[in-house]
Amino acid sequence: MTNSIVIKKKLKNFNKEIIVSGDKSLSIRWVLFASLASGNSKAQNLLISEDVKAAIKTVRKLGIKVISNNKFCKIFGKGINGFNYKRNLTLNAENSGTLGRLILGFLINTTKPIKLIGDKSLSTRDFKRISDPLSKFGGVFKLKNKKNLPLTIYESKNLRPISYLENRGSAQCKSAVIFAGMRTSGTTLIKAKKSRNHTELMCKYLKLPVTVENKKNYDLIKVKKVKEIKPFDYKIPSDISSSAFFIILTALSKNSKLLIKDVNINPTRIGIISILKKMGVNIIFQNQKTYKGEKLADIKIEGGKKLKAINCPTNLNSGAIDEFLVIFLVAAKAKGISYFKDLAELNQKESPRLKWGAKILNMMGVKNIVTNSSIKIYGNPNLEIRKKIIIKNYLKDHRVFMTSVIASLSFGGEWHIYDKDSIKTSFPNFLKIINELKN
User: Fold this and answer.
1) Does residue 109 sit in the same domain as residue 12?
2) CA 54 to chain centre
3) What does each of the 439 residues of the chain score in pLDDT, given as a tens digit?
4) In 3D, which of 75, 77, 24 has the Cα closest to residue 46?
5) How many domains does the chain have?
6) Residues 413/389, Cβ–Cβ less than 8 Å
7) 17 and 52 in one domain?
8) Does residue 265 share a domain with residue 189?
9) Which of 140, 217, 307, 338 sits at a 20 to 30 Å CA gap from 120?
C-alpha cells in the first residue's frame, strides 16, 4: 500500500459538525503526571497518536504499569519517586519534542544513567536549550555534538534550585525546568516569556507548590519540591492545533460552514483565532466552559468572507507557533501583503517550517520573501492552481503534510503528497475527517 496520496479536485462547499482528536499537549502531560501520582489515574479521549504512544512506552520502561485502548487509558502510579528501572536504560522519544524535552525534567534526580534517543527529525533538534538550564540544577548531560540526540543524563547529586530566564517563548523549556524544580529542595524561580501554560494549569488543578504571577510581558513562576501527586481522572478536550486545519479549510471555502465541538481554547493557544479574525475570518466561540483549569468551547466558522492581509503582531506568535504553516495559506488568498516576523522558533520544529512554508507557497505560485525569522507573503484573492505539485522529503513533518492537503482542497491543482503516515504523530484521524467533509 502506497504511503502517498493524490488530490486532483477542490473540496465542494460543506455544512458540517465534527469532533477532532484529543489535545496532544494535554495528553502527554497527563501521562507524565499520572505516572508519578500516588495511585491510579484514568483518561478518556486521550490522543492515540505516535507521540502519545511514545510517552506511554517511556513511562512503562520507567517501571509504571499502563493499560490503554482506543476508549480509555489507565496509569497505575507509584508515587513521586516511583520510577524503577535498570542501569543504562534507553528511552525513545521517537518524533516527540514535547516528550523528549519534558521527561528530562522529571529525570533530573536519576540515580542511574539514562540514554534518550529519537527519530531522524528529533535528532536534528536543539536539546542544548534543555540541558543548559537543567545542568544548573546539578544535572550531568552528554549530547551528540554538544547539542543533539542521542543524549545521556547521568546520576545527579546535591540538586539545587535555580533562577532561570526563558526568553524564547518555549513551553517545552519552561515545563522541563518546572519539572526539575518539583524534584529539587528550595525554590526555583522562572521568569518566562508568555507561552503555553498547560503545565502550570495542571499543577494548579493538582494543588502542587507551583505559583504563577502574570505580568504584562512575562510570567513569574515559583516552584517548590513536590512530595505527592494525587491520582486524577481527565477527559482530554479536542486539540486546537488539529482543529486549525479545518478552521482554515472552511475559511478558504466560499459558502462553507463548520462547527467543531469541545475544543481547548486555552488563551495561550488561540493566537490563530486572533490572527484569523484580524484577517476577516468569521469565527465564533459557543458553549464556553472551564474544565480542570482549561477553557473549552464549540468553534463555529463561516467561509466566504473577503480576506485581508495582516502585519502580524509578534505577541501572537507563541500562541500560534504550530499553526503558522496553514495560516500562510490564508495570507496567500488575502488581499494585500502579509508580514510575519520573529518566527525563528518555527525552524526548531519537526522540520524547518518557515523554509517549508515558503517552499509550498513558491510551488503554488505565490510570491514571498523569506528570511531566517520572517516571511512576507503577496496575497492573490483569485488564486487558482492548475499544475502538478509534489510534496516530499520534508522530514515526515505531520504539519507539512496536513497543510499541503488543505492547500490542495482549497486552491486546486494536482497534488502528490508523500509520507501520509506522518499524521500518525499527532492526528491519525485527519484524513478520515477530510472524507467526512467530502460526503
Assistant:
1) no
2) 15
3) 479 999 999 999 999 999 999 999 999 999 999 999 999 999 999 999 999 999 999 999 999 999 998 878 999 999 999 999 999 999 999 999 999 999 999 999 999 999 999 999 999 999 999 999 999 999 999 999 999 999 999 998 889 999 999 998 899 999 999 999 999 999 999 999 999 999 999 999 999 999 999 998 899 999 999 999 999 999 999 999 999 999 999 999 989 999 999 999 999 999 999 999 999 999 999 999 999 999 999 999 999 889 999 999 999 999 999 999 999 999 999 999 999 999 998 988 888 999 999 999 999 999 999 999 999 999 999 999 999 999 999 989 999 999 999 999 999 999 999 999 999 999 999 999 999 998 8
4) 24
5) 2
6) yes
7) no
8) no
9) 140
- Half-sphere exposure (CA, 13 Å, Cβ side) for 58? 34
Place of cell 528550595: 186
Give pTM, 2 decimals: 0.94
Angle between helices 240-251 and 398-411 (to 10 degrees): 20
Say if residue 196 is in the same domain as residue 319. no
Which of residues 210, 230, 250 is at a domain's end? 230
Identify whether residues 217 and 280 lie together within a single domain: no
Query: Which of 230, 261, 280 is the C-terminal boundary of a domain?
Result: 230
What CATH number corresponds to the domain at position 281?
3.65.10.10
Quote the crossing angle between the two packed helices 324-333 and 353-364, to the nearest 10°. Answer: 30
Identify whether the C-beta of residue 27 lies closer than 8 Å to the C-beta of residue 236. Answer: yes
Residues 322 and 182 both lie in one domain: no
Please give the residue range of the domain that contains residue 394: 4-21+237-438
Residues 14 and 43 in one domain: no
